[in-house]
Amino acid sequence: MFFASASTTVKFHEYPSGNVVHNYQPGTKVEGPIRSISWSRDGQWLALVPYSGITEIVSVKNQLKLLNTIQDFEEPSCAAFQNTTRKHIALGTKNGQVVIYDIKTRNTKKRFPRTSSFITHVGFTAKDTHCVASCRNGDILLYSNVTNNLSCTFKVPKSNSVTCLRTNPQKRNLIIAGSNEGIISLWDSNTNKVKFCIEAHKAPVTSVAFSPVNSDLIISTGSDRQFSVYDIIDNKCIASISVENNITAVDFSPDGKYFAMGSQNGFVYIYDSRNIQEPIHSFQAHKSAVKHLAFQSQADVSNSSSISDPTDFPSNEIIESIHTSNSVEAGDSFIAALGLDKNNTADSMGPEESIKSPEVNKWTVLTDTPSGHNSTKILHEKIGLGDSRKQFSSTPKTSNSQNLIPSASPIVNVNQKSITVNATMSDIQAAAKEAVKEELRSTVEELKSDIKFQSMHSTYQMKRMLLDLQMAMVKEFIKVENFCNGIKDEITIDSRSDGNSSLLEENEQLKRRIEELEQQIASLTQDHILQNGENGV
């Protein structure tokens, strides 16, 4: 398995040794740090956006090679693969355009409404129901993949910027973002409400990441030379660790046991989640700041033989098998299935082994003190991992996992004193029932959200159809009215023309009558004068 680190070039490192396997430079020359990187769901392709130039997709199967370039969009700024398929990729541009591109057909599949600001990050929610994008002006845009419209706009509280954006592809529709003001905020895309918000750092937040085994656990890094771990359900900081250099990138390993952080001086640090006081390994990855870190998808390990060539697209059966493998890799084990994981271990442990999570101030610098050890234990419980002295046996997560020991009990807790926790069958059944009930409740909530969304979409479509029908009726009415008005005007013009001719004839008759009368008056006047003249004589 690889993990990629990006600065001005992208390096592919072996995990966990950190040895460089490939070093890839996009474009023809180095102009600045790479803007974004994104693994495909099967872990065989990596999409990267250089500082300037076109988006490139490289394949890491067998050997590193350039697979495809996306030349249809000028000045791309970020890119991200979908969670359910590697066929589609979201692209953001510097001029505010967000599109979904089909890699196989090399055509634009969807084009969302344009914004006026520079797109800095893009991603997808669980099941790819929404595409999320952040802008330089501080807006976070949530686009619906069903209606292709803008569903909602978020803002980090008390901030006008977005420095990092991350979605949780494993569970629920969670979106988290950080700002220059040191604030991180988390939303649920189903309700479009803030679920968690905290002043995480005294300087800009540089990166955030979800734990792949516990979606309620997040880690954030900042330019204040600290990284912190938070529980979004309890709304508190679990641990806060000071480091020697500013941390610029962070990502969890697929199994959630380790996480890697990149620093401003080009170093990469590997931490064990069971002991976060000191890194277990560090190495110089780049000469400049590490801008991005991303672990390769675990599906590449278990399904590498399913796809014969990087240019071939996986069939539906392969996609389903990869999806199933991803679900197993999310941390579901036999213990978790019985409900005896981190949420129920207190019932099976003795009173001296049950740990209650204390409140930790978000600016506390943990040192090698008893309180620090307690915080580390709390973190183990939240992540779902025990320390090296406490391990639970579980079912294999992939087909290539280690063979399961036949004699292993499904519920075993072993420490240096060889303490065995016995559980009766009734306890197991009760725990299994609780686990099933919890799973049913979560499933019902997801179904309710989906039904609500579909009903809202159906209502919107019905309203749109009714509006279109009304507009069509209005247009037809206007056409009929215009036709009738035209006929009326023609009839009026004809009637006016006939009336004018009759008036002219009457005028001519009147003129002739007036002339006759004038002649009669003149003749009578002349006769009258003559008569008066004779009488006077």
Strand residues, percent: 25-35%
Number of helices, counting only DSSP H or I runs of 4 residues or more: 6
Count of DSSP strands: 28
Please state the CA-atom Rg, rounded to the nearest Å.
Answer: 38 Å
Low-confidence stretches: 300-373, 386-423
Q: Specify the overall morphology.
A: elongated
Which class do the helix and strand fractions yield?
alpha+beta
Q: Percent helix among the residues?
A: 25-40%
Instruction: Please outline the major beta sheet.
Output: 4 strands, antiparallel
What is the CA-CA span between the terminal residues?
Answer: 150 Å
Average residue pLDDT: 77
Instruction: Give the strand order of the largest sheet, numbering strands 1, 2, ... along the chain.
Output: 3-2-1-28
Walk me through the structure.
Helix content is 28%, strand content 29%. The protein has 537 residues and is α+β, with helices and mostly antiparallel strands. Among the domains are: 332-444, no CATH class; 447-537. The strands form 7 sheets. It has a 4-stranded antiparallel sheet, with no helix packed on it. Strand 13 and strand 14 form a beta hairpin. It starts with a strand and ends with a helix. Residues 300-373 and 386-423 have low confidence and may be disordered.
